[in-house]
Amino acid sequence: MARQLPREVADKSVCPGINLFRMELLRLVVGPVLVKPRAGGMGLYDFGQGIELLDGIDDEELERRQTSERNNGRLAMVAIMGLMWQDGTFGEAPLSYMNKNGFWGEPVQFIVQHINNCQSFSGSGIDNAGVCAVPKRHEGRTAMRAVQKLAEGDYVELETYPKEMEMSPSVPFLRYPQVLKGWVGEEKGFDPLGVTDALPVYWVREAELKHGRIAMLATVGWIATDLGFRFPGEKFQAVANSVEAHDKMVEAGYMLPFFGAIGVFELFALWLFFQSWPLGEGINREAGDYWLGKQFLPKDPAKEKDMRLKELENGRLAMFAFSGIVTQAVATGKPWPFM
C-alpha cells in the first residue's frame, strides 16, 4: 500500500502552494521522460499542455506568442545568472540586499582595485601628455577620474587646479580644457562634458571630423534627392523621396556592394589611424588627414588654420542639420523643405 501523507499536508486548502509546486516539479522533471510529443503538434517540444491558449488564433498571432515566450525565456536565463551571482557574491537575496545597502549597493572597490589603465601620449606632435584612470581617493565607492598633464608639467587631479585658473570662453563658468591648446578651435574652449579629459584629443578630433564630413555630404545628398536629382536608370527614378531611398536600394540589390566599398575604405582608415601618432610610429599624420584636398589649403598658416576651423564648424552644424532633416522628413512625410 502507498504511504499516506498526514491529513494537514494532503489537504489542498491548507497548503496549496506546496501541492502546486510538486505538480510543476513533476511536470518539468518527469514529463519529458514519460510523456511523448503530441501527435500532429508543432514539434518535439509540444506535449499538448496549454494548447487551449492557441485555439482560434491566426498564424501571425501564434508567431507573436511564441516569440514572446522565447524572448522571456532568454531574459529569464540572463536574470537567473544575475541572481545566482548576486547570492554567491554577497550572500543575500537581491531585494533584501537593495533594501539594506541602497540601489547602488555597498562599495565594490575589490572588483577594479588591480586594474591599471594608463596610457602615455607624450611622444605626440601635440603634447597632450597622459591619460590615466585612477580610483578616487578617500572614498570606498569606485570612481574613475581622468588626470592630465597641465602646462606646468605636473600630474594633478582635475579638482586641484590653481585658484586663478583659465576659464572657457564659450562656457565661462567651466575651466578651460588645457589639452585643447595647439588644436584647431582651441580658442572656443568648448568641452562641457570633459570628453577630452578622459580621451586623447587625437581620437576625439578624428571621430569629429569623420562624422562632420559624412554629415555634410549626407545633408547635400538628402536635399538633392528631394529636389529631384537621380542617377540614370528606372530603379533610381522610381524612388519618390530620400526617406524611402534606403529600402528601395536594398530591394534593388545595390546596398551590399555599396557597403562593401565603404568597408574597404573604413578598414584602410582604421589601419591608418592606428599607424599614426600618438598610437603608432609609422606615419606622421594629423587627425582626419587622408591626403585629399590639402592642395586647396592656403599657404599662409593663419589662413590655413581659419580654413580648418571653417570645416570643423560646418561639420558640427551639418550633424545637427542632418538630424533635424531626418526627423522632419519622417514626422511630416514631405520632402525638403517640408512645407
UniProtKB/TrEMBL annotation:
Q: Which organism is it from?
A: Symbiodinium natans
Task: Give an example GO biological process.
Answer: photosynthesis, light harvesting
Question: What InterPro entries does this protein map onto?
Answer: Chloro_AB-bd_pln, Chloroa_b-bind
Transmembrane helix among keywords: yes
Per its UniProt entry, which superkingdom is the organism in? Eukaryota
Q: Name one GO cellular component term.
A: chloroplast
**Keyword Transmembrane on entry:** yes
Where is this protein chiefly located? plastid
Which chain regions cross the lipid bilayer?
A: 252-274
Q: Where does chlorophyll a bind?
A: 208, 211, 310-311, 314, 316, 328
Which gene name belongs to this protein? LI818
Indicate what this protein is called per its UniProt record. Answer: LI818 protein
**Where would you find this protein in the cell?**
Plastid, Chloroplast
What PANTHER family does this protein's entry cite?
CHLOROPHYLL A/B BINDING PROTEIN (PTHR21649)
Extract one GO molecular function annotation from the record.
chlorophyll binding
Keywords (A to Z) from UniProt? Chlorophyll, Chloroplast, Chromophore, Membrane, Photosynthesis, Plastid, Transmembrane, Transmembrane helix
What are the binding positions for chlorophyll b in this chain?
213
